[in-house]
Structures are given as C-alpha cells and as structure tokens.
Design goal:
By secondary structure, this protein is α/β, with parallel strands linked by helices. It has 8 helices and 14 strands. The longest helix has 22 residues. The termini are far apart. 35% of the residues are buried. About 8% of the residues have low confidence.
Length: 355
C-alpha cells in the first residue's frame, strides 16, 4: 500500500512483552502495599475489650512499607483473676478475627498481659494452622500463673503455617509465603526475689507433671536475685537425675557460686552445668571444679562443665574455650588458651579427645 510504514519484525511481540512487564510491576506494587486494615484491627480490639476479664484493649497498625514490615499488633490487659477459659476465649476471638479479615502481607500478633505475666502469639502471616493448640496454650498459661502465684510467667505460643512448597533445588521457592513454617513455643518463669534453686526445682516439677503440653518448647526458669539459679531448656525438660545433680552442686556452697543448668543449648554437649564464681580467682574456680566434676560425671555423657566468673563460660565465636575452667566430660573442647597444670589434670581425667 502506498505510503504505508513498514512494520518492524517482532515489534508486536516486543510491545506485548513490555505490557506484560508493566502488569507484573503493578501487581508487585499492589502486593508490596497491602490494604489498610487499621479499621478492622480497631473493631477486633473493641470486640476483645468487651470480653470478660479484659480491662483494656487496643491495636497498633504499622502499614507504611517504606518504614519497614507492615504489622498488626493487638494488646489486651486482663484482670489478675482471669480464668483459663477466659484466656482461651480471648485468643479464639483473635484467631477468628484473623481468619475473617484480610490481613495478607501483614505480620500479626496478640499480647495478653496480666501484671508481669504475658501470653503472646507472634506470626509472620495470618495463615495459622494450629489454632486449637494456641488456644490450649493460652489456657495452660492462665493455669500456670494460678499455680505459681507471685511469679512472672511468659508464654510465647507455638505457631504453625501452611506447608511451604519445595523448589527444584530442594528449598522453598523465593516467592513462597510464609518464608518459614512457624516456630515452637517458648516461655519464661521468673520467680520472686527471695527464691532460690529449690523454687526452680519445684517450678520445673510443676511444668513436667501438670503441663506436659508445654514441655517441648524452650524454657528459662530463674530464681530471684538474692539466691540466683537458672534452668534453660530446649525441646525437653531436665530429667529427674539431671535435676538431682543440679540440686547437689547448688547445695554445696563451700565455695560461693551460682548455677545454671542448660539442656540442648550448647553444641558441645546436650547437658551443660555452668557455675559462676563470685570472685575472678581462677584458683577458686579450679577448686570448685575439683569438687563438682565427680558429681556432674554421674550423668549420662557427654556433659559440659564450666566454672568461671560468668554463666556462659568463656567461649569465642567458634565455640572454642577462651579461658579456664572448661571441661567436657567424655567429650572434647577446642581451646585457644594453654590450660595450667591443675586444669590439665582435670582434662586428662574427664575428657576423651581423639588426636
């Protein structure tokens, strides 16, 4: 045709590709800016505020993507006498509100506070698949508070998300949401200022006997400042034998010290007895180790034992011992220092290193 402009080969396809790219950019922008849910969050907090035992409730919405991850957080202050059923009802109302609303793209959370005790549900996504477990844990939190009066009890609920699709490389694809499958429960029991290791032992016993559904989480049970002592656990509570050994080394205060028992919290050994001396004298720490290593050695090996002037022992970033006194019973410790003769004798007696 006269005067017609020749069409450039592939031009239509090129325009189509640019249109597709533009559409994807628009969709990505929409996904990056989730809908404003402030009014929905306010309504949900109002509903919780009207529930029995709730003294006050409010919401906090961070919806500006440019300022960081968007989130919806609800807070409820409750009466000291709140029952387990009332705590469970609050959590059920919260979870129902998440399912009824469209909070896609938001981090979501609930905090129930009673004095110094707290129950929280923290989630990277509103898609939560273990609602019944969370409600049960809220009920257990309230019952645990009742059994340990005057104690600060914190429980972070376990959260499970829908299974994440697996990519060709064996890992989750980059577009998968949520980026993780959730997290197990965790908690803390902070006993009164005048408490000591015997109160910690009693609290561990209460958890084990009356709240086995919480035992698989991560726990920190601490005595007061006057008589410090602590048990830290991950995925299981201490065995009766472990608690008995811990009680013995606590009871022997011929050399003043404080004890921490750690279960599944150190890569060197599944059980760690960490003793903190009041002085910085290495000689005192050695005498403590000489007295208590035979007691610690009655536990199934391997066991990590430390006696230093700090609870966490002295380790560098690569978990190499950087200062005395550190001994792995029936195990082996890498060291960045040269042990003195007295510590070397303990190492020769208790450690089993392959050279």
């Amino acid at each position: 045709m006269a005067g017609a402009v020749p069409r450039r080969p592939g031009g239509t396809r090129r325009v189509g590709r640019w249109l597709l790219v533009g559409l994807l950019v628009v969709l990505a922008a929409c996904a990056a800016h989730p809908a404003d849910r402030a009014l929905d969050a306010d309504r949900l907090s109002e509903q919780i505020r009207a529930m029995p035992a709730v003294l006050s409730a409010n919401s906090d919405v961070a919806g500006n993507v440019a300022q960081g991850p968007v989130s919806v957080q609800l807070y409820a202050n409750v009466a000291d006498g709140m029952t387990g059923d009332q705590a469970a009802a609050i959590v059920s109302r919260y979870l129902d509100g998440l399912h009824a609303g469209d909070y896609a793209g938001y981090r979501v959370g609930l905090e129930i506070r009673s004095g110094t005790s707290v129950f929280t549900v923290d989630s990277v996504s509103p898609s939560i698949t273990n609602g019944e477990e969370i409600v049960s844990q809220a009920r257990s939190w309230a019952a645990l508070r009742e059994q340990l009066p005057g104690t600060a009890v914190t429980v972070h609920a376990a959260v499970a998300h829908p299974a994440v699709a697996v990519g060709a490389s064996g890992g989750p694809p980059s577009q998968a949401w949520p980026p993780d499958s959730g997290h197990r429960s965790s908690g803390a029991i902070q006993l009164g200022d005048s408490s000591d290791y015997t109160a910690v032992t009693a609290a561990v016993s209460t958890l084990a006997s009356d709240f086995p559904q919480l035992a698989g989480g991560d726990w920190t049970i601490s005595a007061g400042r006057e008589h410090p002592a602590e048990v830290k656990t991950s995925q299981r509570l201490p065995t009766p034998l472990e608690m008995d050994v811990w009680a013995k080394v606590n009871a022997d205060q011929a050399i003043a010290h404080a004890d921490v028992l750690v279960v599944n919290g150190n890569p060197i050994a599944p059980v760690w007895i960490s003793e903190k001396t009041r002085s910085h004298d290495v000689g005192e720490a050695l005498r403590l180790a000489q007295a208590h290593l035979p007691i610690a050695a009655t536990l199934p090996a391997p066991v990590l034992y430390t006696a230093t002037d700090q609870y966490q022992g002295r380790f560098d970033f690569n978990m190499r011992a950087s200062g005395p006194v550190i001994v792995a019973i029936a195990g082996c410790v890498a060291r960045t220092y040269v042990p003195g003769p007295a510590e070397q004798a303990l190492i020769a007696t208790y450690e089993r290193c392959r050279h």
